Task: structure prediction
Amino acid sequence: MNLIKSTGTFSLFVILSRILGYIRDFFIAIYLGSGPIADAFFVAFRIPNTFRRLFAEGTFNAAFVPSYTSELLSSKKKAQRFANSVFNLLVLALLSLTILVEIFMPSFVKLIAPGFSDIDGKFKLATDLTRITFPFLIFISIASFLSAILNSHNKFAAAAAAPLILNVILIICFLIIKRDIDLVYYLSFAITLAGIIQFIFLIVLTRKYFYPSFNFNLQIDNKIKFFFKKLLPSIFSSGVTQINILIGTIIASFQASAVSYLYYADRIYQINLAIAGIAIGIIILPNLSRYIKSKNKSKLEILQNKSLELSLFLSLPATLALIFASEEIVSALFGYGSFNEESVKNSALALFYFALGLPAFSMIKIFSSFIFARNDTKTPFYFSIISVIVNIVISLSLFNKLGFIIIPIATTISSWLNGLLLLIFVLNKNYFSFNNSFFTQLFKIFVANLICMGSFKILVNDLNNYFIFSNSYKFLAIILLVILTFTFYLLISILIKAFKISDIKLNY
Result:
């Protein structure tokens, strides 16, 4: 496997998906803004989208890939039998959960948005919309299972491309429906439809490796039991950032428009996290599992160091850019229509504090993969529990005093704690060790970032007039700024060898 090429392929689809996701959110900002209707829709969207992220962005991979890879190394027949057993149990569990939640939907919405009163019909609207969107969970979870099979065979493109479907369908919905009073209902139906299409798309592409067979005469052997014992901890640990954000959404429901502010900020920093953390974590896991199984320590060490190095190379410049120009970025991306100046300032403030945690969010994905590859999902689970508890304590103790802004602060603090605990663990267990070149490369990456951010600040100041709220062309300014800065960063990195072109040809 070529780490950079595989990451590049995966990232290409991720970037395309995020661009379409931005277009989707651009329409949401224009048509819904940050009022009560937007809050209700974001709650309805947050639940299936959180599960999408939990399953699609490494959670299912973490539990499934090491076990499936082990079976695959033994025989294809055993791998097929194992995968089919997991498939049937997953379908049964998802159907049961969906039926249960649909029956008790009002109570469920009270649980995830307790601050919603029925003023302006906010609670009722959120309940109605969540009823429509929740079945998305079934199809997207099965789609994630199919993606994990493809990833196990080092086929990353299809799994990375599948999320495009959701954004394309929602954009089409906006273009057709526009400002109809029932727009949020159409959008909710479109979400579930996208899940169905994504499932069909992936089941066609996995036919070469997996043939699903519905059989509810379940035979649960020790391997299946072992997998499901790993699954729950992996859901929690791999998705700890998303869980923290979900908790933040619950707490933020007590403040008007806060759910919307957090949503827009989350959308921006997630672009980099998807590349610098999630993509790399997903890509390295199958080969990490193989190298551990075959006891190939030299390749294991190289792959682990290179993955961490690449993650920092990609996350650090994004972190600094989001810190130095959070308001300009939010204004350029969403500051139109119903999304007013107050919405821009509050979303930018949330983005600033989320950005401080971006390297930690990425490192959690990388270090967790080091542990997951050893069939250990419990240790990251324990650290994640600590992280979530810290997040809840900080958020609840200071929410009345600081308002919604404590939520990104608490998320960042708890994530750095989680990342530090994971690092200490993998070092103490000898699961990971820094090689001789890592710190030299890290120093070069820091130098490249310092030089790059100097030029970034100059460009932001020079283009300042283009970022005022009333400027209609500020989107073009931010695109120009990103292209120029990233090009300069890449050139500087190549010049001082923080990034080596020769690495593109290397297999790890």
